[in-house]
Structure formats: C-alpha cells, structure tokens
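Quarterly update from the structural biology core.
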Amino acid sequence: MQIDIPESWRQLLADEFEKPYFKKLEQFVDEERQKHTVFPPEEDVFNALRLTPYEKVNVLLLGQDPYHDNNQAHGLCFSVRPGIKPPPSLMNMYKELHADVGFRIPKCGYLAPWAEQGILMLNAVLTVRAHSPNSHKNHGWEKFTDEIIRKVNEKPEPVIFVLWGSYAQKKLALIDTSRHHIIQSAHPSPLSARQGFFGSRPFSKINEYLRADGKPEINWQIPDC
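Predicted structure, tokenized:
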C-alpha cells in the first residue's frame, strides 16, 4: 500500500504503521486489489491526510465508507471526482448549504477546496471493494482512523468535530468535548436527512466557531467542474 502523506502526519502515525494490525490491513488491501477492483485507487487512499496536513486541521468531518461505484471515490468523505454527478447525500448537503448560507448548488461534487481550507474529510474506512458497500469494514481501518481522531483531539487549540448519524456519533468517546466544538445531527443520507439534518445549519455554525476562535472561515462555494 502506497502511503504518501505530509511529514506532520507521518511523524504522528509512524508507530501505527508498524503495528501488527496495520501490516495485516496492508496485506488484506493488497490481496483485494489483486483479485478485485478496489476504490479509491491506491494513490488516492490517503488524500484526506495529504490535502489537510495535521497543523492545518481546524475541522474534522467524519464519513463512514468510500463510495463504491465507478470513478466516484478519491479519498475524501462525501466528495466525488470532477465531472461525476453528486450522490444523494451530497445533494442533501448542498440543499442544506443553500438554505443555511445561500450556497449556489453546483453540478460538481469535488470537495477538495474544503479540504484545502482545513477540513479533514475523513472516512472511518478508507477502501472498499467495487459495488460492495462496507466490504472492507472490520479489517483494521477503523483502528487506524480512530487513532487519527485521537491525534486531532490532542491538538492544543479547539477543533470542530462534525458527526452526522449514529455511526459517527459513537466517536464522541474519543473526543474531549470540554475543549473542542461538536456539531452533530442526523446523517444527510436520503434515509435520514429529514430526521434532523435539514434545518440543522451546520455550515454557518462551523464558521461561527472558526470566527470565535480567530481562525479563517470556510468559503463553502464549490465551483462547477
């Protein structure tokens, strides 16, 4: 497995890469790639870390599993490659952005501009077999990404943790809620968006917290691809 990440992350996670569970995980993913199509491509697996070095993390947005259809996943939660139609959860995020901050809904679902502004867009599981959702869960990725959450929790300044849905909210146990900001609601999936995601105004809340902490606000607008 190709691990091309910024030096700040490499130092923090060096011990993790040497642990037996991670070696086993690497072997599992390599074997899966030999037998099946696996998303995202190898060079994109660690894009969340690559685009948002540790020192730049102001927000952590947690997803669950990469998109499993062709040409979608590229290593950032909720984001798809340029030119790919935004999936339903992302469209619901766009609708809430429009209602919350007047966002103009683009045809593009490529969210790298958010990552470049300090949002760590982390999935709990970083790979998936094509067309087989959750096929790589419980093979070690969760242990690795829990450690990433712990490292972000250790940052001396406040970070905003965005936890949508019950799966993400289980990670509250890893976060010092007395020091950090927590934004949680239902997941933007079509199955649950109307149960508390719509109307929750997470995007303006993120900018309010950033402003209060003296950090740059996020420009949410995504250009058309």
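The chain has a mean pLDDT of 97.
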